[in-house]
Design goal:
This is Reverse transcriptase domain-containing protein. It comes from Araneus ventricosus. Helix content is about 35%, strand content about 15%. It is globular, with a radius of gyration of 18 Å. It is α+β, with helices and mostly antiparallel strands and about 130 residues long. Strand 1 and strand 2 form a beta hairpin. The longest helix is centred in the last third of the chain and has 18 residues. The strands form two sheets. It has a two-stranded antiparallel ribbon with strand order 1-2. It folds into two domains: about 40 residues, no CATH class; about 80 residues, Alpha-Beta Plaits, CATH 3.30.70.
C-alpha cells in the first residue's frame, strides 16, 4: 500500500483502509445492493489523498532531465515533449501502465493535443 511507502502511521493507515472495506451501493430501482470494491466514494475525504499518492507515483516516473515533461493540475495532466510521435507515445504508455497498476484508466475522448512547430526551452513551474 502506498501509505506504508510514505511512512504514514499504522493507525492512519487503518482508518484509510476502513474507507475502502465492506462498501455496497444500492441504486434506485434495484432490489439488491452490490459490492463496491474499486475507488473511493465520490466526495469522500479519502479521494484527494488517494489521488495525490497515485499521481505522485506517476510523476516520479519522469525525472527532471527527461525529454518528456509531465505536469499535474487538479485531476488533469499535461504531457509535453519534442518529437511527440516518437517520445510522447512511450510516455503516454508509461502513464497508462501506472494508471492500470491502481485500477484506473484514462478517458480516450477527453485528451487534447497541440503541436508546437518551433523548439524552445520548456520550463514548467508550480506556483
Amino acid at each position: 500500500m502506498l501509505l506504508n511507502k510514505y511512512y504514514v502511521p499504522k493507525q492512519l493507515c487503518k482508518i484509510f483502509e476502513n474507507f475502502l472495506q465492506n462498501r455496497t451501493v444500492l441504486l434506485e430501482n434495484e432490489m439488491e445492493p452490490w459490492k463496491q470494491d474499486v475507488g473511493v466514494p465520490h466526495g469522500s475525504c479519502a479521494r484527494p489523498i488517494s489521488w495525490f499518492l497515485i499521481e505522485n507515483e506517476a510523476l516520479n516516473k519522469f525525472g527532471v532531465d527527461t525529454e518528456v515533461k509531465v505536469q499535474a493540475f487538479a485531476d488533469d495532466r499535461l504531457t509535453a515533449s519534442y518529437h511527440f510521435s516518437q517520445i510522447g507515445t512511450s510516455a503516454l504508455a508509461t502513464l497508462e501502465k501506472r494508471a492500470e497498476d491502481f485500477s484506473l484508466s484514462f478517458s480516450h475522448e477527453k485528451p487534447k493535443f497541440t503541436m508546437l512547430k518551433h523548439r524552445r526551452i520548456l520550463r514548467i513551474s508550480i506556483q
